[in-house]
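Model the whole thing, not chain by chain.
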Amino acid sequence: MDSAIKEKMKIYFAASIRGGRDYARYYKKIISQLSIYGKVLTEHIADDKLDDHGEDISETDIFERDTGWLKGSDIIVAEVTQPSLGVGYEIALGESLGKRIVCLFKQQSGNLSAMITGNRKLEVLEYTSVEELPAKLKQIFQ
Amino acid sequence: MDSAIKEKMKIYFAASIRGGRDYARYYKKIISQLSIYGKVLTEHIADDKLDDHGEDISETDIFERDTGWLKGSDIIVAEVTQPSLGVGYEIALGESLGKRIVCLFKQQSGNLSAMITGNRKLEVLEYTSVEELPAKLKQIFQ
């Protein structure tokens, strides 16, 4: 992949906001690594000021903005360790649009939904620590 | 709606399994009430023996069975209080298939995802106690 293509790749990163922020430090690392490979449309997910109340714009505006970004993206990378309605919704929406979807799951952190593990259209990458993330993410874009 | 139609209505009830079972007693009440109005395809969600490990069949079999039921259903009723990847996935899949989707949310139990609250294609019904559920569910089928 040459650098011009890399620069144009639009990455939709999906992760829990209102479902809980236990893994926020992983989200930050993932976004900083994904930025090597393309434009991360949802960079605000790493924002420390973003708590489980979410953002100060209307619900409909968030929905329209996020689904618009998702529709325009080239790939969806979803962190699925924290159970989240929004992330599950975004995965199925992306699948219905024929997007490539990669799910990142931190091992030994609970039981992942069969809607993810039993779904052959999704790629699931497991990791055990924040240090492993750069190499795992590199795999996606090789 | 006459009783013959009611008997044939196929209801897909979506609720958290591996996302957590904190609201299992609500799921049981909802399923018993939904059974008044049609055939609940996912009755096993109320099973006390079902913990957050899920069921003893393969992941792919669960995925194929559940999405098959969802595709064949007339209506999706989703309990969305417990954040759950599977429930979010099922809502978006149902939406992509043009299904009617009703989300039940227990008030004051956290912050519901904007993928639900900002989505005009979904109906959201809030409730505050298990006692309120029969009347709320009756509204859906009126």
